[in-house]
C-alpha cells in the first residue's frame, strides 16, 4: 500500500537527523587591491582584479558620474597606501620605549 511508519520517531531522533541540514555563512576574504570583502577564487566586483591582475575593466561599465566617483576613491586609496609606505622603520631605541 503506502509508506506508513510502524512507530513514531521521537523529537530527539528527528532533530539528530536534521542536525546537519542548515545554511552556512559564506566565507569572505578581503580583496588585496581595494580591501572589499569578496568570495575566495573570484574576481572582485569593485575593482575587477584577480590574483593581482586586472581581469575586468569595471570603469567601462559605469556612467560618467559613477566613474568619476570611483576614480576619486581609487586615487584616495592610493595616497593612503603611499603615506603608509613612507613611514620609516622603527629603530631599536624606539622599539624599546614604552
Helix percentage: 25-40%
In round numbers, the mean pLDDT is: 86
Number of helices: 3
Major β-sheet annotation: 2 strands, antiparallel
Low-confidence stretches: none
Using the alpha-carbon principal axes, give the shape. elongated
Physical arrangement of strands within the biggest beta sheet:
1-2
- The arrangement of helices and strands along the chain is HEEEEHH
| Category by helix and strand content | mainly alpha
**Number of beta strands:** 4
Percent of residues in β-strands: 5-15%
Give the termini separation.
Answer: 82 Å
Gyration radius from CA atoms, angstroms: 26 Å
Family: Belongs to the bacterial ribosomal protein bL32 family.
Biased composition (Basic and acidic residues): 71-98
Region (Disordered): 64-98
InterPro entries: Ribosomal_bL32, Ribosomal_bL32_bact, Ribosomal_zn-bd
Descriptive report:
Pfam families: Ribosomal_L32p. This is Large ribosomal subunit protein bL32. InterPro entries: Ribosomal_bL32, Ribosomal_bL32_bact, Ribosomal_zn-bd. Keywords: Ribonucleoprotein, Ribosomal protein. Belongs to the bacterial ribosomal protein bL32 family. It is elongated, with a radius of gyration of 26 Å. It has 3 helices and 4 strands, in the order H-E-E-E-E-H-H. The chain is about 35% helix and about 10% strand. It has a domain at about 25-85. The chain starts with 10 loop residues before the first helix and ends with a helix. It has a two-stranded antiparallel sheet with strand order 1-2. Strand 1 and strand 2 form a beta hairpin. By secondary structure, it is mainly alpha-helical. The longest helix is centred in the C-terminal third of the chain and has 23 residues, at about 65-85. The protein has helices at about 10-20, 65-85, 90-95; strands spanning about 30, 35-40, 50, 55.
